Amino acid sequence: MSIQLAILGILSWKSSTGYELKKIFEDSSFMYWSGNNNQIYKALMYMENENFVTSEVVHQDNSPSKKIYSITEEGLKELKKWLVSSPEVPEIKKTFLVQLAWSDMLSNQELSKALSKYENEIKLHLIMQNEKYRRALHSPNRSNRESLIWEMISENIISTYNNELNWVRETRQKLFKNEVVEEEEKMNYQIREIESKKYIELISTTEPLSTENDALDLIALCWEHETNVLMIHYATLSEDFFKLKTKLAGNMIQKFTNYGIKATAIIPQETIQKGRFKEMAMETNKGNHFRLYESKEEAEKWLLK
Predict the structure, then answer these.
(1) How many Cβ atoms are within 10 Å of 253's Cβ, its own excluded?
(2) CB burial class (10 A; 0-12, 13-18, 19+) of residue 27?
(3) What is the CATH number of domain 187-303?
């Protein structure tokens, strides 16, 4: 299946700009293309040449002009032709299974750790899929039947992750049975509740937070405990967080913002005031999603506003 058919499907719902199409792909659970600009605009150019779509440039007073794409009658015919064609059977392609196939050379602790990492990744994706389903940002809902179809698609994705989670747990149980395999917790955190408001306080980690995936792990942790409020201690952050050229701080903060997490980091004054990081801290502290404070008291006061 090509991205062109997915775009025709979206345009049969509503006319869109290339940017709007990109956002739909990014937020979708099942339209699996990356949705980068090159992919989308190449597909749109091809389909415009084939008379499957048309475009109209709309001029705006205070913003750049935008090109809006719409589906044509020929495009609708092409879409319908594909809809009634034989469905493709999904391919099973799981890298972890290839890793697991040769894992007998690992110790029980190493194998258990590998299973735990995979389980945590599945949990994260499951939580994110549930959140996407809850928000339902991009779904047509033009009829009761269409709403049900999209709901069942979401359930298909969620059940896939649930089945994978159950499989990992069953695999662990059969491999280790009654044997106790000790694993070090990656994150040491506390759930704080003050006047019916709840937040997670991340106190320490086995390894410093150093990637965007670490931010996603924290987001998943928040969702797991049904809160969107997070406090991060200085000891959990890697040195790269304070080096602007790595873009780690900006990328992590953007993740928190995108997923509606209100977060704060407790950082020593001398670190906040250091070099270019000071400029970022001043700018960040103007916002409502992420702030830096010297003390837990200040951070908590802002978090619980």
Answers:
(1) 21
(2) middle
(3) 3.30.750
CATH number of the structural domain 3-83 = 1.10.10.10
Q: Is the pLDDT of residue 177 over 90?
A: no
DSSP assignment of 41-76 equals: HHHHHHHHHTTSEEEEEE--SSS--EEEEEE-HHHH
In which residue are the tokens 């989308």 written?
40
Can you give the length of the chain in residues? 305
Share of residues in the chain with pLDDT > 90 (%) = 51
Instruction: Answer positive or negative: Cα dihedral of 13, 43, 78, 5.
Output: negative
d(CA 133, CA 136): 5
Tell me the domain boundaries of the chain: 3-83, 95-176, 187-303
Whether the domain at 3-83 and the domain at 187-303 fall into the same CATH topology: no
Q: Is a pLDDT exceeding 80 seen at residue 132?
A: no
- Burial degree of 151 (CB within 10 A; 0-12, 13-18, 19+): middle
pLDDT above 70 for 179: no
Q: Are 203 and 233 in contact (CB under 8 A)?
A: yes
